[in-house]
Design a protein that fits this description.
single chain, alpha/beta, eight-stranded parallel β-sheet, 9% strand
Length: 387
């Protein structure tokens, strides 16, 4: 197999990913900036399907209206020339000093109002360019010291902002869904809505929960040592997997945003297997960055690598499903003699009475061995290419 991406794979990158200059807290940029148009052509050359952006990735925060219109016109022309689309957009509510204490959860009502204004304008831009999903990452929505902010009040402000924006979109007639992106920390010491579970719970407190889902990111869950596939599965089960960010990460570290599959091979496999098995039809968005050591030739290799690894894992998932020994083991592990069917399904009083009276062989239940070591070793051998 050549593992070359096709439009139906729905691979996307943000302008901020391939456009990352290699700056970090301890070092200056190592790559010259490319324009949004140049980045669109770079991605198209590597086989990407779409490109996403923060508002200021495309239009500088200091741009005049005339400058904004010219930039957007050039960007639209690049999309037409390359065939790329814009499935998702978002707002930068974390870089400008105005957001030093948050945006929607800032203690300053003027900052909160400015954040709403900036986001409405960014939503207008995203819709103009075709976005159907709008992501909210609250990078500055949090604290360093809990003495500085009332958490309940901050969450009320957050809720009020999201309700306002959902109503704005409804009033404008925009066909847009919103996705909350959780992260436990960085750049704030503690960020509100730190995990997928926290975001899912918060969504149910909103006026229009049907309009809101989540955008889980692999690195963000693994920063806390959590199982990303489990978080994605929970979001899918809740009908809230609106978007997904793929990258890689060593657990317990700062947000590393490695190339997809660069670190956690088994985690990448199980994630791809899950997405493909359930028929997830949204973007496969790579929110990752090339190493600081990279030049733009290596940035292109980074983008190719993200997509190739996904396609390799997709092929491995198909191989897993067709492997006779693995499937026989799974059948044995999940064997069902039908004797418990009488107790399954919805509750009834008769069913509860019968279950309470049933005599289980507790000792026999505890004596059954499960060949999980053998199964996992077969998976390892499959991933290492010896099956």
């Amino acid at each position: 197999m050549d593992y070359q991406p096709k439009p139906e794979d729905r691979f996307t990158f943000g302008l901020w990913t391939v456009g990352n200059l290699g700056r970090d807290p301890f070092g200056e940029p190592v790559r010259d900036a490319l324009s949004p148009v140049e980045l669109v052509h770079l991605l198209a050359g590597e086989g990407a399907w779409g490109v996403n952006f923060h508002d200021n990735d495309l239009v500088p925060i200091t741009a005049t209206t005339a400058e904004r219109d010219l930039i957007v016109a050039d960007f639209k022309r690049a999309l037409v020339d390359t065939g790329l689309c814009v499935p998702m957009a978002t707002t930068n509510l974390f870089a400008d000093p105005a957001f030093r204490d948050g945006a929607f959860t800032s203690n300053d009502p003027k900052v909160r109002a400015y954040a709403l204004q900036k986001t409405m304008r960014a939503i207008d831009l995203g819709v103009e360019l075709g976005a159907k999903v709008y992501v909210f990452w609250g990078g500055r929505e949090g604290t360093e010291s809990d003495a500085t902010k009332n958490t309940v009040e901050a969450l009320k402000h957050f809720r009020e902002a999201l309700n306002f924006l959902a109503s704005y979109c409804q009033d404008q007639g925009y066909d847009l869904r919103f996705a909350l992106e959780p992260k436990p920390n960085e750049p704030r010491s503690d960020i509100f809505l730190p995990t997928v579970g926290a975001a899912l719970a918060f969504i149910h407190t909103l006026d229009r929960p049907d309009k809101f889902g989540v955008n889980p990111e692999l690195a963000h869950e693994q920063m806390s040592g959590l199982n990303f596939m489990h978080a994605v599965a929970q979001a899918w089960d809740a009908g809230k997997l609106f978007h997904i960010d793929l990258n890689d990460q060593k657990p317990g570290r700062y947000d590393q945003d490695f190339r997809f599959g660069a670190e956690s091979i088994k985690a990448a496999f199980f994630l791809v297997q899950f997405l493909e098995n359930v028929g997830y039809s949204g973007s496969r968005h790579f929110d990752a960055h090339a190493y600081r050591t990279a030049d733009y030739d290596d940035v292109r290799a980074f983008a190719r690598g993200c997509m190739r690894t996904y396609l390799i894992m997709k092929a491995k998932a198909q191989q897993f499903a067709q492997d006779k020994e693995i499937q026989e083991l799974l059948q044995a592990i999940n064997a069902d003699d039908g004797s418990m069917h009488q107790f399954s399904g919805a509750y009834s009083a008769d069913k509860a009475t019968a279950l309470k009276a049933f005599a289980f062989d507790r000792v026999a239940l505890g004596q059954r061995g499960l060949p999980y070591e053998r199964l996992d070793q077969l998976l390892i051998e499959l991933l290492l290419g010896v099956r």
